[in-house]
Structure formats: structure tokens, C-alpha cells
Design brief:
single chain; three-stranded mixed β-sheet; 5 helices
Length: 100
């Protein structure tokens, strides 16, 4: 899975001058089903629009067992992935500046 030219061109040029990493066309996106999130007896799994999406759900469902509900994100998670993370990454805690 790779970033398209259109996706690379949509970053605000001002972000690059502020030190953000530029988006490059044809750069490999770090998509992985292992970047899922588990909570309250269920798992939310990234989806990429590939035939392997359902296979990933099935494998994780078998691994977690019948007491767990494993679901994919409707519509996919490509937009999240374009910002260098996915489902598990965006559910992480944020520390307060005073706690550092």
C-alpha cells in the first residue's frame, strides 16, 4: 500500500516549514491489521479495502474466541494511516505537559 500523488500533494506546505515530515508520493504506508484496538470484550480492526480485510477479522476472531466481538472499521482507515498511525495508535493516551 503506497501513498498516491494526490495524497502527497494535499499536505499544507506550511506544515513542512514547521518541521513536519513531508508526505512523499509512492512512499509505503505502514498498514497492518495488528494495529487493532481491544476494549470491553471486542476488537476494532483497521480495514484497507483489500480482500484480506475479512480474512484478518476472521483470524483475529478465531484467536480471541467466541466471547469477543471483532469488527472492521466501516469505510476503511486509510485517512488515519496517512497520518502515520492507525486504530491502536489513535486510541493512545496523551500526557499533560505538567506530567512530563
Amino acid at each position: 500500500m503506497f501513498r498516491t500523488h494526490h495524497e502527497a500533494d494535499t499536505i499544507d506546505p506550511e506544515h513542512i516549514t514547521k518541521g513536519y515530515v513531508p508526505r512523499l508520493a509512492n512512499a509505503r504506508l505502514p498498514g497492518s491489521y495488528i494495529n487493532h484496538y481491544c476494549a470491553n470484550g471486542g476488537a476494532v480492526v483497521p480495514q484497507f479495502g483489500y480482500p484480506t480485510d475479512q480474512q484478518a477479522i476472521d483470524v483475529l476472531q478465531a484467536a480471541y474466541g467466541p466471547g469477543y466481538k471483532v469488527v472492521g472499521v466501516p469505510g476503511g482507515t486509510r485517512e488515519v494511516l496517512l497520518n502515520a498511525g492507525n486504530v491502536h495508535c489513535i486510541t493512545q493516551q496523551h500526557v499533560l505537559a505538567g506530567d512530563i
